[in-house]
């Protein structure tokens, strides 16, 4: 317990420095790139007072101060929880980030709920069929689905659903129906929000729109699952304790799931944890194809419009997500496998 | 047995879900009329006095000015003011306000609201430069004569009716907003921040129900709007969702999937395909013009003859079809078609012989390379870039094409004043007006004092004086003012400082369940749809 707390404390301590590093680098990159955030904040002013408006905006945004002071002030504001307002929309960046992040996370989590069991089951099946045609086909499938560009698969699946099956998978929710029924986001996770509001119709609508992009995002964990489980299970099945269990006449199902599979869970957790983090990028691409709002569109929009406050804040959140996901993976691994020390 | 139970449970859930879905869809058919309109940019703010960009798409339905501009008749029409008159050579204007109008919080609209709205836009601009309050520059004093009469005294003669119909900085808001925002001074910028959180203090036909500037804004019909009895449209949408869809392909997908009712920015090449699929289109000639601007402070585009050589090389009869896929009018002069001050016949025609003569006169040797920067996410500018490169190759001028973001182009454009040698030789700048005057285009894009938007670096005292004089004359001698604007445009044309490439034709593509009459759009109020005229089946 003490060791775990120490570990967490260390992780948080190092993470602060990582986040500060990200703030400094991103702030400098955006501020020094072409474009004037002050002009954007001032609304790209016109008329005889345009220059005055930009100078005033420079003061409001602290951009009139030396660069090192701007960075220090920005870090101070972030660490004291003041992420400020977007210079494009003049609304709080935290609200914007939460709205978009909840959409991305909903997609990602749902994709992994689909992806992990399928990947694991197929991986186990493939490992039991090593050397056979079925096993090789499964391994190839794992390789292909893990490496196919998600943009392409997303486009293909979107067309299949909308043009062939006639099922709309566009957006997160039927805007018209949601407006008619007075749907109001609460947590930002629409599956949960529709249930909280007792709206089963919209729940199914959200689910219907979530499944196709989630299938695309799940392809990576499925592919990775197949390949990793196949390798780990193959090794586990040739371990002495497994052979001994077989010799003792333990049932096939018990040998596979209670002996061999349990042994690979720590390794699998680590790989899946990393793949979850990686899939964030996939989700950001896929949501674009399916017309869903999310962190991807938010970040791209912020960078293009020189919205340094929003861009830096979004990157902080994304990097924090990476750090948190890795930390959770480590903790879960240590919890499952007593041999792993934090 | 367990398996059977599980299968039964799944079947029950699916059937229950399906039944609920079916029932709700039936129920939905007798529910409010909802219109979903896709707009192509995030909302930059909704302060009725200070917003100067994309917020117009929301403000246009929530707030109202004193007057609207009718581009077909080139005259103003009543909005919150029922009638108006001017005296003393257009230096005193009196507006008689509409009675019985209420704001969205049911408080009455009166003269005080007009006075505060105008003064706020004007004084915040004077104090901080924020917003577009310069449109009220001529106003020396504005006061309420009674609850429904407002008098403006001007510093110089001005067509204040046209100013009052401006697309920005002319909306009237509820003075109660100050108390709600916790400020006592209307120039306090906390009021701006308060508005931008999603506040609604207008009188317009629609109210803001929810505001998310990145994703969607939901408007709801304001039943107490004064104009419903005149519009008599019982099929007007009860709710409008302005959906932010920045990507043209995304808009296309949304339209064909039935999620979006009206789109404005689908890829131009797909418009005909959509029409063939049964969607409808409404075209309007906009006041949104694209200018090809020369850097007049850098060799060789600082030489007039060289600029003329470039302009005579371009196949002007092809650019609208090739770059804009036919959805534009070839520019003429420096204000768009249909806008006051438009001049017919101020356009170039391709003439390679003349181009070569001018090139020789310029003293610039063939083989010279010039830079052209364009906005990479505008396919029409990319197409124009390739036309430009090919056509200039005909006279031996190489073009280095620099695709870039709008932010970078603006940065490069305005650097012409301080660092002309680092500014590309050619840029594209697009413009749409705030006030109904050629001065809006000519001042911002070509006046020597306009350092933010004049990307040519052109500073010609004669030209500056001409347009300043014309603007000053608009109030007392409108005809003479238009003559001077014409002369000013001829000066620009003869000096080949820039050229108006095209005036965009905006296409609204919409689902046939919607009726979108031409009265629902107005080129001065870009992208605004006047939903009170729209019918939803």
3D architecture notes:
Chain A is built from 14 helices and no strands. The longest helix of chain A has 38 residues, at 200-237. In chain A, helix 7 packs across helix 10 (200-237), helix 7 (150-164) packs across helix 12 and helix 11 (240-247) packs across helix 12. Chain A has helices at residues 2-32, 37-41, 50-60, 67-79, 93-128, 133-147, 150-164, 175-180, 190-196, 200-237, 240-247, 252-289, 295-304, 308-336. In chain A, 77% of the residues lie in helices and 0% in strands. The termini of chain A are close together. By secondary structure, chain A is mainly α. In chain B, the strands form five sheets. In chain B, strands 11, 12, 13, 14, 15, 16 and 17 form a seven-stranded mixed beta sheet that branches. Chain B has a four-stranded mixed beta sheet with strand order 1-10-9-8, covered by helices on one side. A four-stranded antiparallel beta sheet of chain B has the order 4-5-7-6, with helices on one face. Chain B contains 17 helices and 19 strands. The two termini of chain B are 51 Å apart. Chain B is an alpha+beta fold and 537 residues long. At the A-B interface, helix 3, helix 5, helix 8, helix 10 and helix 13 of A face helix 1, helix 3, helix 6, strand 10 and helix 8 of B.
């Amino acid at each position: 317990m003490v060791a775990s707390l120490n570990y967490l404390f260390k992780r948080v301590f190092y993470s602060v420095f990582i986040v500060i590093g990200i703030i400094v680098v991103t702030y400098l990159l955006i501020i020094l790139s072409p474009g004037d955030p002050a002009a954007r904040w001032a609304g790209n002013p016109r008329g005889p007072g345009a220059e005055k408006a930009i100078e005033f905006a420079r003061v409001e945004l602290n951009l009139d101060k030396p660069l090192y002071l701007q960075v220090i002030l920005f870090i101070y504001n972030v660490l004291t929880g003041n992420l400020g307002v977007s210079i494009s929309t003049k609304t709080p960046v935290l609200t914007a980030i939460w709205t978009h992040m909840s959409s991305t996370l909903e997609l990602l989590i749902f994709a992994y709920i689909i992806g992990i069991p399928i990947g694991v089951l197929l991986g186990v099946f493939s490992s039991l069929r090593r050397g056979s045609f079925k096993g090789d086909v499964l391994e190839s499938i794992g390789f292909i689905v893990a490496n196919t560009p998600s943009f392409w698969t997303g486009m293909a699946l979107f067309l299949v659903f909308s043009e062939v099956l006639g099922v709309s998978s566009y957006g997160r929710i039927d805007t018209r129906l949601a407006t008619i029924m007075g749907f109001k986001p609460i947590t930002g996770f629409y599956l949960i929000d529709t249930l909280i509001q007792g709206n089963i119709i919209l729940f199914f609508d959200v689910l219907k729109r979530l499944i196709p992009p989630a299938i695309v995002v799940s392809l990576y964990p499925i592919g990775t699952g197949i390949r990793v489980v196949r390798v780990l299970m193959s090794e586990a099945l040739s371990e002495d304790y497994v052979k001994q269990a077989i010799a003792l006449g333990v049932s096939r199902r018990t040998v596979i799931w209670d002996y061999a599979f349990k042994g690979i869970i720590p390794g699998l957790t680590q790989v899946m944890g990393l793949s979850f983090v990686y899939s964030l990028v996939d989700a950001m691409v896929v949501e674009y194809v399916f017309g869903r709002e999310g962190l991807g569109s938010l970040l791209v929009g912020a960078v293009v419009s020189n919205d340094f406050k929003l861009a830096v804040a979004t990157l902080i959140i994304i990097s924090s997500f990476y750090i948190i996901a890795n930390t959770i993976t480590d903790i879960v691994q240590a919890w499952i496998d007593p041999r792993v020390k934090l | 047995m367990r398996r059977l139970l599980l299968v039964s449970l799944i079947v029950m859930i699916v059937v229950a879900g399906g039944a609920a879905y079916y029932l709700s869809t039936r129920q939905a058919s007798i529910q409010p009329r909802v219109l979903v309109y896709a707009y192509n940019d995030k909302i930059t703010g909704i302060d009725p006095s200070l917003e100067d960009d994309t917020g117009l798409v929301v403000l246009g339905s929530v707030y109202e000015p004193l007057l609207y501009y009718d581009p077909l008749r080139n005259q103003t029409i009543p909005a919150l003011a029922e009638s108006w008159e001017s005296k003393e050579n257009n230096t005193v204007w009196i507006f008689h306000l509409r009675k019985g109008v209420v704001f969205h919080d049911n408080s009455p609209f009166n003269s005080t609201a007009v006075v505060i709205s105008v003064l706020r836009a004007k004084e915040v601009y004077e104090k901080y430069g924020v917003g577009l309050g310069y449109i009220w520059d001529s106003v020396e004093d504005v006061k309420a004569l009674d609850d429904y009469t407002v008098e403006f005294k001007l510093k110089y003669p001005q067509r204040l009716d046209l100013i009052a119909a401006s697309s920005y900085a002319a909306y009237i808001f509820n003075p109660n907003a100050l108390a709600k925002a916790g400020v006592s001074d209307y120039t306090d910028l906390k009021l701006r921040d308060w508005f931008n959180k999603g506040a609604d203090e207008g009188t317009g036909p629609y109210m803001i129900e929810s505001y998310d500037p990145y994703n969607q804004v939901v408007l709801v019909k304001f039943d107490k709007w004064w104009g419903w009895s005149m519009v008599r449209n019982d099929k007007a949408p009860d709710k409008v969702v302005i959906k932010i869809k920045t990507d043209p392909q995304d808009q296309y997908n949304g339209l064909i999937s039935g999620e979006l009712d009206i789109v404005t920015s689908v890829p131009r090449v797909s418009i005909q395909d959509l029409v063939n699929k049964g969607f409808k289109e409404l075209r309007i000639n906009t006041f949104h013009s694209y200018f090809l601007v020369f850097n007049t402070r850098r060799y060789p585009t600082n030489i007039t003859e060289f600029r003329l050589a470039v302009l005579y090389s371009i196949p002007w009869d092809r650019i609208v079809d090739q770059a804009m896929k036919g959805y534009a009018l070839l520019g003429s002069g420096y204000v768009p078609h249909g806008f006051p001050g438009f001049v017919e016949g101020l356009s170039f025609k391709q003439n390679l012989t003349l181009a070569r003569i001018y090139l020789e006169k310029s003293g610039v040797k063939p083989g010279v390379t010039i830079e052209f920067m364009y906005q990479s996410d505008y396919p029409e500018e990319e197409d124009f870039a390739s036309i430009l490169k090919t056509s200039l190759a005909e006279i031996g001028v190489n073009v280095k094409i620099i695709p870039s973001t709008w932010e970078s182009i603006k940065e490069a454009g305005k650097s012409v004043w301080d660092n002309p040698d680092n500014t590309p030789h050619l840029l594209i700048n697009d413009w749409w007006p705030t006030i109904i005057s050629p001065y809006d285009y000519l001042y911002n894009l070509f006046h020597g004092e306009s350092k933010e938007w004049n990307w040519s670096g052109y500073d010609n005292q004669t030209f500056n004086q001409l347009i300043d004089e014309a603007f000053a004359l608009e109030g007392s001698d409108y005809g003479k003012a238009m003559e001077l604007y014409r002369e000013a445009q001829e000066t620009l044309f003869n000096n080949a400082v820039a050229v108006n490439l095209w005036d965009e034709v905006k296409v609204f593509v919409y689902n046939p369940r919607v009726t979108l009459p031409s009265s629902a759009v107005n080129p001065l109020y870009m992208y605004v749809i006047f939903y009170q005229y729209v019918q939803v089946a």
